Amino acid sequence: MTEWGSGWQDALRERLGDRVSVASGDRNAHAHDEGTPYTCIPAAVVFAQSEADVLATLAVAREYGVPVTPWGAGTSLEGAALPMPGAVSLDLSGLDAVGEVDPVGLTVTVGTGVRRTALNRRLRPHGLFFPVDPGADASFGGMAATNASGTTTVRYGGMRENVAALRVALLDGRVLTLGSAARKSSSGYALKHLFLGSEGTLGVITSLTLRLHPLPPVTASVQLAFPEVAAAVLASVTVRGLGVLPERLEFVDAATIRAVNRHRDRHDPEAPTLWVEVAGRDGADVTAQLALLREAAELHGGQVVGEARAPEAQSALWAARHAVYDALRAAWPGHGTRIGDVCVPLPALADTAALALRLLDGHGLTAPLVGHIGDGNLHLLMHAPPDDAEAWARIDHVLHDLAAHAVAVGGTCTGEHGVGLRKRAYLRAEHGDALDVMRDVKALFDPLDLLNPGKVVGDPDTLPPWRNDVPARP
Amino acid sequence: MTEWGSGWQDALRERLGDRVSVASGDRNAHAHDEGTPYTCIPAAVVFAQSEADVLATLAVAREYGVPVTPWGAGTSLEGAALPMPGAVSLDLSGLDAVGEVDPVGLTVTVGTGVRRTALNRRLRPHGLFFPVDPGADASFGGMAATNASGTTTVRYGGMRENVAALRVALLDGRVLTLGSAARKSSSGYALKHLFLGSEGTLGVITSLTLRLHPLPPVTASVQLAFPEVAAAVLASVTVRGLGVLPERLEFVDAATIRAVNRHRDRHDPEAPTLWVEVAGRDGADVTAQLALLREAAELHGGQVVGEARAPEAQSALWAARHAVYDALRAAWPGHGTRIGDVCVPLPALADTAALALRLLDGHGLTAPLVGHIGDGNLHLLMHAPPDDAEAWARIDHVLHDLAAHAVAVGGTCTGEHGVGLRKRAYLRAEHGDALDVMRDVKALFDPLDLLNPGKVVGDPDTLPPWRNDVPARP
After folding, report:
1. What is this model's ipTM?
2. Which residue intervals define the domain FAD-binding PCMH-type in the entry (chains A, B) (predicted)?
3. Same CATH topology for B216-330 and B332-417?
4. Are B344 and A182 a contacting pair at CB < 8 A?
5. N or C: which end of chain B has fewer CB within 10 A?
């Protein structure tokens, strides 16, 4: 346990009082994320309640050379929120203010610690929602810092398209307001975008103005089975050409459907499958869209597995999709999981999916392959016994080959999970000389390398010394 | 006229041969843009035919300390493409290659000099189009460099949302490829976005990969008159809540309708007016949207002036909107024009429009007020006799007060025209300390201040010495 008295701790305590903790319970609660096998215990935790607390923490960091790693909800999958040795974990969950909803401009300003589902509950009575849905109940600061996206990105875009403005505290004590509630601007450099996806390595986001969208008056869903992945991709392109832009367009591979059938006693066709949600003005609107979806599916050899319009019926239809994780856990009780994600240009998607399945097969592994197919975004849900180091090494091989392939075909090593610690190794291949420019940008904002050091543009050969090949949590 | 022999000219000629010109015709053709009253004759013009030519020009710039200002189509309205004294105008219109259209990924890669209308002609047989439409037949490099947007931005976004990737040549000779054909990424800092809107001050964009969209199967248009601007704004918000997101949503003030009526012998209600285009899958789809549009308009006191479904009928309906410029020119023959644009949060739009009309009145001026109302983006089409310095001074006052107001209400001094020379004065008020950070970023990419110096983040008090208060072109 860290002892008080070495200077920076006293300085933190002096400025932040009991909002600083070195209790092992608090430190351990900030030592793991939801996706990486590392245990990274921070030297202290600051429970910030305000932007002033963030600035006070950064002042101590600057004066004493103490690294700081922001913490939102801890739902990161790539290690973005894990503290370096000796670092302070800056817990931002206390910055939880939600401003007035602007029903004309369709914006709301929230503290960086506000979580997605809490905001959407509050927006529902206004007939509005915030569309970006990464699955986890992440904080908006974390979602912004990793440029998160998810199921609805095919229609609404990700965080870069839906953050109108943000405030960010810099290491030198300045607070910048970037962007505005105006819906567009050609005024100056896009610094706002620079912080979206920077994972706390350039500054600490303290609040965000979010773009809201009207809840669709009516929705409907359909489940479609295809003879092969390529047919599913082409059907999704065809339907766009017919004037239908779905709300969600989710893919699962055939073997996973088999596993879900077993787990749920279902009899769905064991084929590459799409779940599609469409939204419309009224019943006739979604009826017409469903007809075009069927037409597009049939054109590419697909068949309708199920269709649903009432909310409960839609939930039942999507239940098979949402059962993927449960089926995995039921089939492999006690296994640890690791989710790898890549994103490729749509013409490369079918081959990338095929490669993923071949890699699994070649390494004697099974894993659900799920994807946001309209974006070209694929996930492998890897699993193994926590202590089976050899299995985890094979998993590493598969995820490595998949990420390298995605970059080689002109895609990206991380579609929506961020870089954190584990995707740093692919940035040179993906960005070339631009990686050096990113490092120059990092040095501009953080010359002392105190803001979430090592992450994103850090040296990928320097794995954290506390690396633990045995996953710490199932 | 510039003489050969002072070093850099010889170096340019040696590396670029007859693609360098100091002929006065060529230099004069690069001395004006479409919106500013300056005459800025470059020291030479390089007619680049390739990325290699761009790099050769930048190498000479670096070695001899010669400033370089990129030139696309010269359609800038704020002086972004005007060369500094002694600068080389780098004409990129020769980088006009158009790559294969990707019908699955919905992308195409184009040279920076390709123009908007030429590309859309080529895309039409594919059933695709590139939606960003700033009005002028601009080059894609210029549109990217000013983060241009326009009539369709309410639905499709502007350049930041529609440039998938770009190549940019840096002053130090590196060429970065930023972004990819993958539809999303969380990999590293958003350098691509930094160049979108940087107006050639950080590097020279040489090619772009653009996101394409399916041409809507069916469209229809409606013209609506409202008792006041606020009602038009609220109707546009209401209709979105009903599930209708128009393709275009164009506003014109009452006095301008009066002028168009006179010019075209029309009898449209002389009231704040919206033209709305909706797109759908089929006739029934647009019929339903038109019904909701009428409903939303009537809810806010609006009335339908006209409605059109056949392409020719739609063109006739929009003719009144497109006649604004003609009516202006007919009413004030020989006048020079200057278009100022601002963008404000939607709740501030009606007051901003009212202020614009009051400012005109207070200064004894008339000017059409037109806007992309779904974005909160307003334009004043100012006009005066070219040699009436006193009138131009009043025009400056109006545009100044409007830009200052837009910033004061949380908007931006330039919604889509860029900063260039004339909007620099508002960047401190709009961005605060972020302007200093922008200048740091400028210094990082251009330590010698050779890339379009003076623009965007340049000192606004230093007006170009060649300023001519008498507009050089009508």
Report:
1. 0.95
2. 38-215
3. yes
4. yes
5. N
